[in-house]
Amino acid sequence: MKNMLLTVAETAALIETGAILSLAADPDLLASLPKGNWIGGSSVYFLTDEGGAMLRNRVFCTQFSDASHADIQVLSAQTLPNLAQGYVANGATVLLIPAFSAAHEEFALNSQTYTDLFNQPLMGWVAGVHLDDVGRKAPMVFNGQTGQSHENEAVAMYLTLPSTAHATIDIVNLFQPGNAESPSFQFETSGFGASTAKVNGQSVNLAEYIEDNALDIRLPLVADYGGAMVNVAIRAVDRQAGHVSFFAPVVAGVSYRQARPVADYAASFAQETQGAGAGEYACNCILNYVYGELEGKTTGAFTGPATFGEIAYMLLNQTLVRLDIQNAA
Questions:
Q1: Torsions phi, psi of 184, nearest 5?
Q2: 139 backbone dihedrals φ, ψ, rounded to 5°
Q3: DSSP code of 219?
Q4: Chain segment 225-238, per-residue pLDDT in tens
């Protein structure tokens, strides 16, 4: 794999060669590109070799040079449960979903129940917009083979790899749940929002509890999923409406604790990854970008878009996700 930050003209020239690509850029730039073997998602925040940057005039391009073929499908909320039917032998799948769409909600709530979902590496991200445009402009994903954009559907790229290649995915999550003395949160229903929760077994109005206890909403709720720490980031707290919204769904019956603070995001990522990341397909959460003040800072050797959600089989928040393809030939 090769990661590049390109102009529109450079990206178009690469597409014309027939290269298999995943692109991230302002949607107007993606819409101007020629048809080809690519998928794309809207993003204007990136982690580059020089550090984090907001760029409206560049395209972040990942070339899957090890892949021999790519099949692209557009999946609605109704057809997403059939995602694994497109898996190919010795392959990997990249999935892009527009934020706040029906496909986003469907995947977030139900992906763990999809038949055969875990049978091959599935990695991807949630397309977003400039933070000033949230609620005003719709995030988009693109099927490069047709040139069409989609605001409410996902786009999947099924990569065929040679027999000598092997794909793996991994996550880097800096957050750990608070200790046993910290409050435990449980929810009666799954979803992207909640009005009430049980805190240490006692039912409370969640918005009031967060504000009355001055909880730092930059820190996600964290649950232990069989040894993997999974974050749920808090999107907004509306005390007047008595409601809290999240960037990923909380799951009924699961115990969450608020994460411990991270002192230095950039240094922590670099330490955690120990210099790895070059030549890998990666994305990092927009909340890590903002809360960690990553503009102008690097996260080890990892580059890629800052996204409104990350996918490693399931929807994640405030996490770095990576896809690596090793070819023994």
A1: -105, 130
A2: -60, 150
A3: S
A4: 877 889 999 999 99
Record the tokens describing residue 327, joined without a space: 């070819």
The domain spans of the chain are 2-172+265-327, 185-258
The answer to whether 45 and 283 have CB atoms below 8 angstroms apart is: no
3-class DSSP string for 131-153: HHHCCCCCCCEEECCCCEEECCC
User: End-to-end distance of the chain based on CA atoms, in angstroms?
Assistant: 14
List the beta bridge partners of residue 127: 98
The span from the CA of 116 to the CA of 74, in Å, is 19
Q: What is the DSSP string of 276-313?
A: --TT-EEEEEHHHHHHTT-BT--BTTB-EEEES-EEES
Strand 191-194 with 228-232, pairing: unpaired
CA distance 154 to 29: 19
Q: Compute the residue count for the chain.
A: 329
pTM of the model: 0.93
